[in-house]
């Protein structure tokens, strides 16, 4: 159960080897979280994440989960929720793709959409249903500022996040009054494995900063979290920049 | 928190079912969860509701005055017991009342005072139900003389997980597990309570100031036994030499000869007054160290250095906060929590250290309450034990509050003390288990009489009760 100060006791990370997911889990385990479920494709990174969290004192369960295998989500996630209440489910999986290649290879572009949007839709819906049954709990969806307005340089990734973001907002509203809720986290450029070698955008941040903002958002019951916070104002400005100008911006 | 209510009497296939969903919190207005609400108006309806409980279980709720998540059951059913509120029998010779669990202490006072009887134990609010008073085994300013509420219950009827009614008397294992059992052994249907005879409805009160914590503790230790009711209000914002400065208010029910001729015309009058309720939508953050400090300063200066035998009404003496309905709204949308612990006698150093840490942290706590407990009762999870108990309200938004209270928990535990379940909203499960030695027995009993876990609550889930 989430306590009065917004500290959860159990956590499910979808995309268990995600750096932001792990950074968030680390913080929460240092708080009240005792049970962590890591769901992801088997990999050394996933095992390492589990080991690290165990070393911090958490009881960690690893589950095989493939975001693109949408027809398995109900079974895989259903089993996890059957083991006990989940106070926070963090949807942390996602791929960046390679914009230039994906523009030339439509199937590769579809693969990005399949993970980031399709997989997220089924997984979120399954989680939301379970949280609704529990009468409490938060689903944290990792969106991105890239979804706020599509940019020439990464509109494939951006559009998947735009879809996910809109979906998550609507899902959050549908859960209003059920005790369960959705929190959308919109980080800017995060320095992780996923963005290695890419030119940094202004206001770049770290996985740990995203984790910190996520935990703080859970505490205060936020619906939307921008990381860093200043992006909220930057983006509300950029949203209104005319297309002809926006197209030429070096972002 | 109010929520839509529906009668249980919607019958489907012979069963009464709950149909309204409601968002519930405790009095501290933190950690809301949603449950189906059911309002049984008879024992039969309560039984049907218990039998119809789904896999998320069910739980009785009274007036929702416990601060944390004790009366919530996320995803399950919550039985609002306030409509199961008939007074069944009144023995004015012996001073015994038998009433259903949803009867409030307010109602009992209004009913019984004109006959010269008073409830044996009253907490800081009259708006608690008899069922809740037993479930939390509540205490009042007279604990050092009269013990906790459960001590005055001569029998009760409990609805268990299978839907059977069990008649319980003190000494029964299930009676002792239910007293302080936070509603997790079953639904208390009715109880018989031994009352206290009083000659008037006024209190004769002695008030004195104590300049610091040491002086306060000395005075309480030296003269508490002379009073039936005793409590000290501490200013936790004051620092330095004034740390722990306090006002002691101690008293006794006034006798007839203390009353003015005018008061003597109607010595048992009980007409509690109340101001308009605190409005909705008060923003958070009004209660800061500065504002609360100013309030506490004013209140300390206002108290007389020493005054003897002042006559006060019952409401003013016992339930000052009941004068402002919904006063919990002043903490804003973030809500607040109450921290109440007891440390045994001999652990005064631990108490002093905790008071200093709270004061140093700059907690904007309105008056905290310090009191000396007498003997503990037989309730397995009952809170009181001989020692010093301190209770304070804190806005949930105080920076660093979680780690601070975690540290204090450890100190309370190390001193051999414990935290009050009816107030808790944030403790760690293993800390609690170390504080309540009979928790293992409690779990075993629940496992035995309620193997499928019909009765459960957010508190039980959070702390693995």
Automatic annotation (TrEMBL), chain A:
SMART domains in the record: PKS_KR
Gene3D superfamilies linked: NAD(P)-binding Rossmann-like Domain
Top-level taxonomic group: Bacteria
Keyword Oxidoreductase tagged: yes
E.C. designation(s): 1.1.1.333
Single GO term (MF): oxidoreductase activity
All residue ranges annotated as the Ketoreductase domain in the record: 9-192
One Pfam family in the UniProt entry: adh_short
Keywords per UniProt: Oxidoreductase
EC category: oxidoreductase
Family: Belongs to the short-chain dehydrogenases/reductases (SDR) family.
Listed PANTHER family: 5-KETO-D-GLUCONATE 5-REDUCTASE, DECAPRENYLPHOSPHORYL-2-KETO-BETA-D-ERYTHRO-PENTOSE REDUCTASE
Protein name, UniProt field: Decaprenylphospho-beta-D-erythro-pentofuranosid-2-ulose 2-reductase
Protein species of origin: Streptacidiphilus pinicola
Organism lineage string: Bacteria, Bacillati, Actinomycetota, Actinomycetes, Kitasatosporales
């Amino acid at each position: 159960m989430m306590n009065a100060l917004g500290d959860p006791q159990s956590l499910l990370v979808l995309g268990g080897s995600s750096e932001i997911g792990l950074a968030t889990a680390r913080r929460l385990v240092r708080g009240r979280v005792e049970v962590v479920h890591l769901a992801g494709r088997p990999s050394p990174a996933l095992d390492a994440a589990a080991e690290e969290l165990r070393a911090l004192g958490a009881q960690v369960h690893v589950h095989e989960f493939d975001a693109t295998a949408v027809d398995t989500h109900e079974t895989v996630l259903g089993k996890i929720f059957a083991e006990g209440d989940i106070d926070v489910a963090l949807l942390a999986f996602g791929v960046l793709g390679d914009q230039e290649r994906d523009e030339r290879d439509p199937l590769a572009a579809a693969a990005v959409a399949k993970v980031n949007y399709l997989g997220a839709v089924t997984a979120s819906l399954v989680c939301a249903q379970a949280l609704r049954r529990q009468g409490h709990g938060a689903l944290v969806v990792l969106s991105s500022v890239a979804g706020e307005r599509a940019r020439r340089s990464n509109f494939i990734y951006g559009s998947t996040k735009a879809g996910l973001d809109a979906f998550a907002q609507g899902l959050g509203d549908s859960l209003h009054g059920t005790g369960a809720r959705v929190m959308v986290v919109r980080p800017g450029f995060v320095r992780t494995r996923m963005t290695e070698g890419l030119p940094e955008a202004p206001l770049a941040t770290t996985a740990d900063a995203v984790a910190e903002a996520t935990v703080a958002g859970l505490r205060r019951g936020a619906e939307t979290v921008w990381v860093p916070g200043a992006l909220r104002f930057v983006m509300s400005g950029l949203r209104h920049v005319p297309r002809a100008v926006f197209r030429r911006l070096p972002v | 928190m109010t929520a839509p209510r529906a009668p249980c009497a919607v019958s489907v296939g012979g069963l009464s079912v709950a149909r309204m969903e409601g968002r519930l919190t405790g009095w501290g207005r933190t950690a809301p969860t949603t449950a189906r609400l059911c309002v049984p108006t008879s024992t039969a309806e309560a039984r049907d509701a218990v039998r119809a409980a789904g896999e998320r279980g069910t739980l009785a709720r009274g007036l929702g005055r416990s601060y944390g998540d004790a009366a919530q059951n996320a995803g399950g059913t919550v039985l609002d017991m306030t409509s199961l509120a008939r007074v069944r029998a009144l023995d004015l010779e012996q001073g015994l009342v038998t009433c259903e669990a949803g009867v409030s202490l307010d109602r009992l006072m209004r009913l019984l005072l004109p006959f010269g009887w008073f409830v044996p134990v009253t907490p800081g609010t009259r708006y608690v139900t008899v069922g809740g008073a037993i479930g939390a085994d509540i205490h009042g300013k007279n604990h050092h003389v009269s013990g906790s509420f459960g001590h005055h219950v001569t029998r009760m009827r409990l609805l268990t997980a299978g839907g059977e009614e069990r008649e319980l008397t003190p000494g029964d294992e299930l009676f002792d597990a239910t007293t302080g059992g936070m509603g997790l052994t079953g639904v208390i249907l009715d109880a018989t309570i031994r009352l206290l005879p009083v000659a008037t409805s006024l209190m004769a009160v002695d008030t004195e100031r104590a300049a610091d914590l040491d002086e306060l503790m000395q005075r309480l230790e030296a003269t508490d036994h002379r009073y039936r009711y005793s409590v000290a209000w501490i200013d936790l914002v004051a620092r330095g030499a004034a740390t722990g400065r306090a006002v002691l208010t101690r008293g006794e029910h006034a006798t007839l000869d203390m009353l003015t001729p005018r008061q003597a015309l109607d010595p048992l009058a009980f007409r509690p007054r109340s101001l308009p309720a605190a409005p909705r939508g008060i923003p958070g953050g009004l209660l800061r160290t500065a504002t609360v400090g100013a309030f506490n300063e004013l209140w300390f200066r206002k108290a007389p250095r020493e005054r003897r035998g002042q006559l006060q009404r019952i409401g003013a003496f016992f339930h000052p906060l009941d004068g402002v309905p919904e006063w919990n709204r002043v903490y804003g949308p973030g809500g607040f929590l109450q921290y109440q612990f007891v440390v045994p006698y001999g652990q005064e150093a631990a108490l002093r250290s905790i008071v200093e840490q709270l004061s140093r942290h700059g907690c904007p706590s309105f008056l905290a309450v310090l009191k000396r407990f007498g003997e503990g009762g037989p309730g397995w999870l009952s809170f009181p034990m001989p020692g010093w108990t301190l209770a304070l309200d804190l806005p949930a938004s105080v920076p660093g509050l979680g780690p601070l209270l975690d540290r204090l928990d450890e100190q309370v535990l190390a001193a051999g003390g414990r935290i009050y379940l009816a107030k808790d909203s944030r403790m760690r499960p293993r800390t609690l288990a170390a504080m309540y030695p009979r928790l293992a027995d409690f779990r075993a009993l629940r496992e035995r009489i309620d193997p499928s876990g019909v009765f459960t609550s957010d508190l039980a889930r959070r702390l693995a009760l």
